[in-house]
């Protein structure tokens, strides 16, 4: 198995090409975006291992990091990215516009 995603959707949300780790065929990428507020988000994607890591920092000082396993898909929803894990009731939602934020949704309930 592998993570289902559209590379053009990620390109649109992060507004930049990913950093390719090893070779493109290895399926390991780092997408990142820096906002005018000084917040930077990075998404490490290992397509064939079905893993994602999300990290955030402000002015190069890290304040959040999480690792996700058994990721089934990444999907663009407007200016948001939904990350869904196969064996979890929690989805991660990252909003890129009009303001940056991340929240989780569990059983229809949102947590920011």
- Tally of individual helices: 1
Distance between the termini: 30 Å
Strand content: over 45%
Overall pLDDT confidence: 91
Question: Your description of this structure?
Answer:
With 112 residues, the protein is mainly β. The protein has one domain (7-111). It contains one helix and ten strands; from the N terminus they run αββββββββββ. It has one helix at residues 7-14; strands at 19-20, 28-34, 39-46, 51-58, 61-68, 71-77, 80-85, 90-95, 101-106, 109-111. Strands 1-2-3-4-5 form a five-stranded antiparallel β-sheet, with helices on one face. The termini are far apart. The mean pLDDT is 91.
Concise overview:
This protein is mostly beta strands and 112 residues long.
Q: Which key phrases capture this entry?
A:
112 residues, five-stranded antiparallel β-sheet, globular, mainly beta
Chain-wise SSE layout:
Blueprint: H1 7-14, E1 19-20, E2 28-34, E3 39-46, E4 51-58, E5 61-68, E6 71-77, E7 80-85, E8 90-95, E9 101-106, E10 109-111
Antiparallel strand pairs: 1-2, 2-3, 3-4, 4-5, 6-7, 7-8, 8-9, 9-10
